[in-house]
Amino acid sequence: MSNQELTEQILKKKSFLCVGLDVDLEKIPTYLLSEEDPIFSFNKAIIDATHKFCVAYKPNIAFYEANGIDGWKALEKTINYLHQEYPEIYSIADAKRGDIGNTSRMYAKTFLKDLGFDSVTVAPYMGKDSVEPFLEFENKHAILLALTSNEGAFDFQTQKIDGEELYKKVIRVSQTWENADRLMYVIGATKAEFLTEIRKIIPENFLLVPGVGTQGGKLEDVCKYGLSKNVGLLVNSSRKIIYASESSNFAEIAGAKAEILQRQMAEELRQL
Amino acid sequence: MSNQELTEQILKKKSFLCVGLDVDLEKIPTYLLSEEDPIFSFNKAIIDATHKFCVAYKPNIAFYEANGIDGWKALEKTINYLHQEYPEIYSIADAKRGDIGNTSRMYAKTFLKDLGFDSVTVAPYMGKDSVEPFLEFENKHAILLALTSNEGAFDFQTQKIDGEELYKKVIRVSQTWENADRLMYVIGATKAEFLTEIRKIIPENFLLVPGVGTQGGKLEDVCKYGLSKNVGLLVNSSRKIIYASESSNFAEIAGAKAEILQRQMAEELRQL
Predict the structure, then answer these.
(1) Is residue B224 packed enough to be buried (19+ CB in 10 Å), middle (13-18) or exposed (0-12)?
(2) Which residues of A touch B72 (CB under 8 A)?
(3) How far apart are CA B166 and CA A170, in angstroms?
(4) Per-residue pLDDT for B257 more than 90?
(5) Which of A45, A109, B15, B87 has the smallest C-beta neighbourhood within 10 Å, fewest atoms?
(6) Cβ contacts (< 8 Å) between A79 and chain B: which residues?
(7) How far is CA B79 from CA B44, B84, B148, B186, in A?
């Protein structure tokens, strides 16, 4: 999906919500555990109930790998279901991969070609040749970790190299790489005040913003400092939506939670 | 496996060789492709032929994920075979994972508990809380990316923060984390000259050194600057061993290649 198509979908749905499909068997309604594929059953219900209010889904791959082969099967079924039923929705494999070039190429093929995700999250520590293989796919994106939402972001990401924070250097340097227009960046909502500086370096690139909700980031701050003229934001919420209820109507309640966020986003978009 | 047990195995076998099981279906002997599980058949043959000359195996997870469910099955079979047949050998899941704390915890459980690897490689970009969950397992290790063997290492890792290169800061800061004695570090053989400085910060921690062979690093340089009093080195070779031949006696030739490296290592150990 191109940036333009993504923006068009956002404006049509009045939402830039991404729903994180971080499915933990210990947190889903227990009655689902007797189903043949509890993870897929949960995802299908969540997707059917929330798709009107969001423009993207983001399974975090850790939660699928934790279930071994069953987890991979559920991941495949989930992305296939999404492509079949809601082909207009953007998909993110939250995998945070990155390796030497020939190995990154394997990961890129797995997530962007074989599984058919629109994008994959990538760690920048190993530099240019570890990221560029993810940028070789037309109308697909690599979403580079820049400033993450966790406490550990202050260990290295905000440390200064020649007066410039590492995360800014990652953004600036990565913009010189081949196919840099296919880059998006992870910027945690818990650090919304940093967005003004970030927008000076990348006024238009999409930012994937986790940390709204459970981790304490505020949507209005993210929008105030992060919205670009093409919207340029995907705001992720996982636990606050998908685990809003453990009852049999969990999907309905997840839908209602997603709708609340969608309405707040519609308000923000009105001010564009 | 504890550091001490690993050192004892090294001294007994006179080898600190790690064989990288980076199995690419396009590179293995074509006659294996007709077998039920070509990846496992290849690994089994390589392991049986090389186990006398090495102390560790390191499957790079990208190569398994690239084959989806079949890849995961082959990975499980490989690690189970290793545990059953050669329980004294150290195992490394080369996964280069790292995420926010509760998600890193899932990855740690997957590789260190469920699959039962002795260690997993971890990316440091997201800081302390992304790494510590990998350090909660007794007699297991997290192997932190510090200075990698690829060209992209110069993009960020060697950049200076307050006069100190990022990779050194990663090593130094990570040594203050909980259970830091369970940390090993990835240091590329292509940058052996950096080892003197690294040994000043961590005189005893094990270093996993890739890049000997195909990537051009030299074993004698790695030993000259990297050997500690407890050996403290695992030197990895992948393609130069496992793809040394495409003929039906590929495993035998891989064994011979491993033995050549083992003999060089025995020489180096004699000088300890």
Answers:
(1) middle
(2) 68-69, 72
(3) 13
(4) yes
(5) B87
(6) none
(7) 10, 9, 25, 21
What pLDDT was estimated at residue A122? 98
Q: Pairing state of beta strands A164-165 and A160-161?
A: antiparallel
> In the predicted model, what is the mean pLDDT of residues B162-168?
96
Task: Give the best residue of B77, B150, B186 to mutate against chain A (max A CB count within 10 A).
Answer: B150
- C-alpha distance from A152 to closest chain B C-alpha (Å): 4
| Active site (catalytic) residues of B | 96
The per-residue pLDDT for B155 is 98
Provide the CATH number for the domain around residue A112. Answer: 3.20.20.70
The average pLDDT across A48-73 equals 97
A159 vs B69, B145, B161: nearest CB? B161
Smallest Cβ–Cβ distance between B69 and the set A73, A97, A166 belongs to A73
Residue with tokens 């003999």: B263
- How many CB pairs lie under 8 A apart between chains A and B? 166
Query: Of A36, A85, A35, nearest to A57 (Cα)?
Result: A85
Confidence band of B190 (pLDDT split at 50, 70, 90): confident
Say if CB B195 and CB B227 are below 8 A apart. no
CA distances from A151 to A161, A184, A190, B165, B269 (A): 20, 22, 9, 22, 42
List all residues 6 or more positions away from A112 whose beta carbon is below 8 Å from its beta carbon: A118, A119, A120, A134, A137, A140
ipTM value > 0.90: yes
Q: What secondary structure letter does DSSP report for B203? A: S
- Beta-carbon separation of A125 and B127 below 8 A: no
Which token pair is A78?
């989930």
Q: How far is B8 from chain A (nearest CA, A)?
A: 31
A200: pLDDT strictly greater than 80: yes
Q: If pLDDT is split at 50, 70 and 90, which confidence band does B211 have?
A: confident
Task: Report residue A271's pLDDT band, with 50, 70 and 90 as the boundaries.
Answer: confident
Beta bridge partners of B97: B122
Q: Which residues of A are catalytic?
A: 96
Q: Do A131 and B152 touch (CB under 8 A)?
A: yes
- Distance of alpha carbon B103 from alpha carbon B87, whole angstroms: 29
Full domain range(s) for residue B199: 3-270
